[in-house]
């Protein structure tokens, strides 16, 4: 009878319309462990002999250093986010957030925004990794996916080999992603005995494992941290009062700031210890608990008559891949007052939240002077550009193959010849500056491309005519048009590194002269933000994702056009053709063709036959007072190390080809007593060469390995290391020589055997901890947890 009942239930499960029975696995769990129910972790049943366990003190540091380095943010395997206890309690979900093929937009599952309770997450398809049945020492481990993953690793450590077998799948979109529930775990363990956690990395130390299992047995007790008090509370009150003034002018200012800072990790730079906050929209005013307004996009209709802008403590651990630090201080507030309150003449009504208006910043914020908006963006230009890389598109090869692997970014100077007419010009062109994000998260990419490319072409025609009028006779295109940071701001020059499906932005001009460069003006910077950050939905359908990529093509070429405009006319065409080798004439003609053609000579005098190199030299000289040099190896205190690493820049392309996208090199002391003290950490970045980047697919068809290069930087750049390399100072020359003579995969594997830290290295976690400590000590504001999802197995 029981067998018949179980069979009936198994059949019924396949039909969502015929409920009434539970799956067999659920039935067995009910019999063994009792019925499932959400547990109140703040008042656990089992406190006997466990009252000394403190989540923040004893458990969170282990989860951070051993688990969150793979399980954080959108790209966490199984959506299991272990950066904060609410993520542990939420559990796992088999659905993927990053999916470039879905036809319909996915439901939102942002950890701190889209679910208010564990019950909410269960209704959204998340399964628990903590026990939610009978609370006993035995059941709390036997029915916990987290506990059983740890024990599986303990019973089945990694094989003692250099390279792990192919049964381990480390691809980001691996089909082998399992996400077993507690009811499925026996099958999972039987089929994948080596897949315990941490996956594909050494197991935890005994004291770490014991602490986690003790906590899990106790019912995973959790006490929320105390809210920030003292001086933090005073700063919060001051800023919330500033952001929530009653005048229309103040409310418009706060909306503009929020739509640009909604991803920021805000901090008060005059308060210790360093703590981060987020600017959020709330239904409630300052002084009462925040009632979050969670929408797909920061400019979506909030659904209330009055929005309040509030500061909430950053709810999770800082991850490098999403970390966008932004300082709040008295100087910043005074700048805001000047730009947005003193310079706005009048605001008669607040703009609409209708998508066609809210997605277009040139229409929404037309009452804020253009120069004020541009000054706001320039003041922290690295933060704004970094949002394109670390925001929603921080992962995705189709999203990021729209940019070259390394390039420099400069900015048009505010209040120069281009700016006085900007108000009238943007008012005239606001319709042509509309973005595909106004269509929402489900877009037909073909119709979208046709519509918005036509608008872009109209804008370019008008812009070309305007530039021709402003700079006729070649009297205006000169170095003064490049923003010099007002002599004090290091945001004036940036370097962008793209690493296949992720990217980083740093201040300064890193490496040798790049193939391409951008010169960005206000309209470009604003549109990029509203296309790739404020308007981009990582949960959107394939049409939304593809339309965003295609439109970004237009803007990249526009930025490249601005740069080429400073070169002599003939050199512009030659350089364009070099950048777009193999591309169609229609693509080439987009720059200095029938769409965007400004027939003007530059006023800059060039002496030789390499004007691009000369121009880079002029820019370096102009920006020298503000150039950030902290990542330059030339200024390293250890001259020998600097000389050896500088040689790597000359590595031949076909040798550089065998190197991974990003390697972190730890140069160690030779003195055994000082070995734990690193001479330094350096980032080796593989710059993949392409004939052109005009196609969203089949990127490999445009690869030019013989032109690959290595960029070397002091400190840590990037969130996703592919490998750690270690070398004592005395063997650094040997490492450099071997890297310069790589000719095959076997050569690279031999290099790793001498200097690499593979996934199986017994000291992997010790080295990881050392890396994070050094990062936090040398760059505390930028530092966070690295991500090991891209760590190679070679």
Question: What would you note in describing this structure?
Answer:
With 794 residues, the chain is an alpha/beta fold. The chain folds into 5 domains: 1-33, no CATH class; 45-55 and 67-217, no CATH class; 226-332, no CATH class; 351-628, no CATH class; 633-778, 2-Layer Sandwich (Nonspecific Lipid-transfer Protein, Chain A), CATH 3.30.1050. Helices cover 38% and strands 9% of the residues. A 5-stranded mixed β-sheet has the order 11-10-9-12-13, sandwiched between helices. Strands 7-6-5-8 form a 4-stranded mixed β-sheet. α3 packs across α9 and α16 packs parallel to α20 (522-532). The two termini are 54 Å apart. Mean pLDDT is 88; it is low at 1-21.
How would you sum up this structure in a few lines?
With 794 residues, the chain is an alpha/beta fold. 38% of the residues lie in helices and 9% in strands. Helix 12 packs antiparallel against helix 15, helix 20 (522-532) packs antiparallel against helix 21 (542-564) and helix 25 (639-648) packs parallel to helix 27 (732-740).
Strand % is 5-15%
Strand order of the largest sheet: 11-10-9-12-13
Distance between the termini: 54 Å
Domains counted in the coordinates: how many? 5
- Structure annotation, total helices: 29
* CA radius of gyration: 28 Å
Mean pLDDT: 88
Classify the helix fraction into a percent range.
25-40%
State the total count of DSSP E strands: 13
* Unreliable stretches: 1-21
Largest sheet: 5 strands, mixed
- What is the structural class? alpha/beta
Q: Shape from CA axes?
A: globular
Organism: Candidatus Methylospira mobilis
GO molecular function, one term: isomerase activity
Keywords: Isomerase, Signal
Protein name: Fatty acid cis/trans isomerase
């Amino acid at each position: 009878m029981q067998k018949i009942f179980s069979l009936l239930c198994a059949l019924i499960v396949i039909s969502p319309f015929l409920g009434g029975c539970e799956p067999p696995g659920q039935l067995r769990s009910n019999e063994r462990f009792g019925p499932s129910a959400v547990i109140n972790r703040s008042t656990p049943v089992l406190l006997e002999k466990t009252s000394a366990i403190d989540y923040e003190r004893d458990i969170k540091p282990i989860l951070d250093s051993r688990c969150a380095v793979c399980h954080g943010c959108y790209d966490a395997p199984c959506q299991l986010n272990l950066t904060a206890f609410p993520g542990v309690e939420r559990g796992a979900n088999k659905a993927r957030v990053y999916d470039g093929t879905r036809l319909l937009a996915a439901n939102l599952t942002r950890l701190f925004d889209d679910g208010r309770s564990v019950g909410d997450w269960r209704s959204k398809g998340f399964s628990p990794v903590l026990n939610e049945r009978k609370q006993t020492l035995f059941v709390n481990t036997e029915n916990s996916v987290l506990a059983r993953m740890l024990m599986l690793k303990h019973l089945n450590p990694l094989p003692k080999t250099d390279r792990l077998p192919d049964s381990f799948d480390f691809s980001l979109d691996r089909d082998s992603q399992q996400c077993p529930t507690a009811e499925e775990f026996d099958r999972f363990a039987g089929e994948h005995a080596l897949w315990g956690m941490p996956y594909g990395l050494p197991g935890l130390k005994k004291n770490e494992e014991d602490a986690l299992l003790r906590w899990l047995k106790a019912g995973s007790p959790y006490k929320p941290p105390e809210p920030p008090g003292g001086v933090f509370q005073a700063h919060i009150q001051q800023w919330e009062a500033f952001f929530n003034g009653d005048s229309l002018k103040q409310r418009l200012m706060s909306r503009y700031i929020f739509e640009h800072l909604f991803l920021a990790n805000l901090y008060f730079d005059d308060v210790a210890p360093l703590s981060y906050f987020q600017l959020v929209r709330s239904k409630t005013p300052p002084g009462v608990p925040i009632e979050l307004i969670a929408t797909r996009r920061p400019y979506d209709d909030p659904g209330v008559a009055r929005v309040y802008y509030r500061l909430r403590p950053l709810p999770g651990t800082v991850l490098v891949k999403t970390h966008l630090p932004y300082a709040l201080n008295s100087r910043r507030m005074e700048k805001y007052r000047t730009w947005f309150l003193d310079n706005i003449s009048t605001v008669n009504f607040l703009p609409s939240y209708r998508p066609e208006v809210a997605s277009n910043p040139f229409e929404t914020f037309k009452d804020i002077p253009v120069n004020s908006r541009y000054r706001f963006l320039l003041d922290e230009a690295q933060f704004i550009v970094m949002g394109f890389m670390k925001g929603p598109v921080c992962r995705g090869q189709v999203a990021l193959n729209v940019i070259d692997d390394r390039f420099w970014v400069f900015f048009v100077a505010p209040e120069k010849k281009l700016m006085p007419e900007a108000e009238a010009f943007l008012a005239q062109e606001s319709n042509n500056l509309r973005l595909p994000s106004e269509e929402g998260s489900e877009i037909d990419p073909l119709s979208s491309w046709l519509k918005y490319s036509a608008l872009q072409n109209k804008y370019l025609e008008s812009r070309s005519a305007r530039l021709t009028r402003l700079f006729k006779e070649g009297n205006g295109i000169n170095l003064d048009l490049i923003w010099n940071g007002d002599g004090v701001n290091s945001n004036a020059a940036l370097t962008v590194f793209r690493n296949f499906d992720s990217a980083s932005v740093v201040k300064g001009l890193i490496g040798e002269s790049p193939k391409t460069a951008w010169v960005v003006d206000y309209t470009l910077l604003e549109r990029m933000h509203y296309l790739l950050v404020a308007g981009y939905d990582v949960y959107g359908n394939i049409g939304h994702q593809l339309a965003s990529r295609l439109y970004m093509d237009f803007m990249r070429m526009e930025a490249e056009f601005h740069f080429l405009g400073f070169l002599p006319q003939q050199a512009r065409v030659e350089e364009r053709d070099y950048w777009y080798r193999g591309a169609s004439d229609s693509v080439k003609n987009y720059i200095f063709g029938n769409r965007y053609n400004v027939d003007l000579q530059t006023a800059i005098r060039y002496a030789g036959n390499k004007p691009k190199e000369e121009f880079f030299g002029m820019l370096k000289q102009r920006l020298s007072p503000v150039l950030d040099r902290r990542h330059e190896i030339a200024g390293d205190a250890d001259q020998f190390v600097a000389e050896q690493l500088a040689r790597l820049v000359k590595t031949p392309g076909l040798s550089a080809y065998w190197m991974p996208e990003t390697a972190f090199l730890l140069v160690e002391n030779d003195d055994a007593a000082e070995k734990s003290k690193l001479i330094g950490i350096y980032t080796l970045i593989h710059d993949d060469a392409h004939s052109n980047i005009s196609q969203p697919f089949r990127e490999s068809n445009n690869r030019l390995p013989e032109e690959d290069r290595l960029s070397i930087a002091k400190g840590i750049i990037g969130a996703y290391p592919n490998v750690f390399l270690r070398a004592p100072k005395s063997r650094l020359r040997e490492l450099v020589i071997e890297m310069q003579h790589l000719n095959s995969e076997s050569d690279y594997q031999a290099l790793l055997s001498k200097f690499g830290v593979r996934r199986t290295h017994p000291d992997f976690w010790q080295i990881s901890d050392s890396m994070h400590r050094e990062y936090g000590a040398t760059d505390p504001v930028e530092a966070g947890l690295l991500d090991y999802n891209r760590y190679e197995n070679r």
